[in-house]
Design brief:
Elements (H helix, E strand, L loop, with lengths): L1 H12 L1 H13 L7 H17 L3 H24 L5 H20 L3 E3 L5 H9 L3 H26 L3 H11 L1 H6 L4 H27 L1 E3 L6 H16 L4 H24 L11 H34 L1
Antiparallel strand pairs: 1-2
Helix pairs in contact: 1-7, 1-12, 2-10, 2-11, 2-12, 3-4, 3-5, 3-10, 4-5, 4-10, 7-12, 8-10, 11-12, 11-13
Amino acid sequence: MQVYITAVEEGFLYGLLALGIYISLRILDIPDLTTEGSFGFGSAVAAVVAAQGFSFLSFIAAFLAGVLAGIVTGLLQTKLAVHPVLAGIITMSGLYSINLMVRGSSNLNFNADSIFTKLFNAMNISGVDKKIAGLIVGAVICIIILVLAIIFFRTHLGLCIRATGDNPDMVKASSINVDFSLIFGLALANGLIALSGALISHYLGLSDQSFSNGMLIYGLAAVIIGEALFGKKSVALGLASAVVGSIIYKIIVAFVIDVSLFGKNSENLMKLTCAIIVAATLVIPEMKKQVLNAKLKKETKNNA
């Protein structure tokens, strides 16, 4: 049971990562590959700031670090006309070295200064209660930010960002600054991704260079799973479904490990599991659509 509680807890913490990827991929319609770099950047900055005794301030610093990464990617795209994919790769590659420089090594342990450790010690919580408390904290943080994101995308600036993703040419004709909207959207997306990295580091009590590996595919899986379940009806539903997809993905991974679906190699085959999940969520809806189209064609032919 603890395995699944932990999975849901991590699902909420990684939910901010899924929100960031949803903003760049679905709202801005940009395949932003900055993700792994900004996630690691947020983790590194949060660890260094928290290790100095500023636990709460570390989250703000991590968010701003992600915002900076998003701005760099946005400027490469808008001002230097670099292809979106290449712009993300450039920023991500640069951040790999920057993250090492920020930590001063490949990993940094700050468990004593972790906000989760301080909270649990103050409440004298341990064992299963610690898992449940962590789940509640993660859920509250994720839900609050989700609500704020939904509210933001109903404001004038939020609507401009949405319009930029839908039809940039029309937005230009409406005298809206497309470049600013795009840069702001990427900054917000990577800020949330970096904040997710900070939360995970605080949850684990350390920051490691390997933490960001595979974060892009994880976020994509969360978004795709959410859309497969709830569809693409609105931005608000899309943002919420990304968080739900993150939780479901973590539960699936926990199930694979718990039942040893791949035997002794279950933990070593998480990347394969992720690939299978993403493939399934992409293929199954398409197969359903093809079956439905075949039925409609058959009915049309019979009626004719």
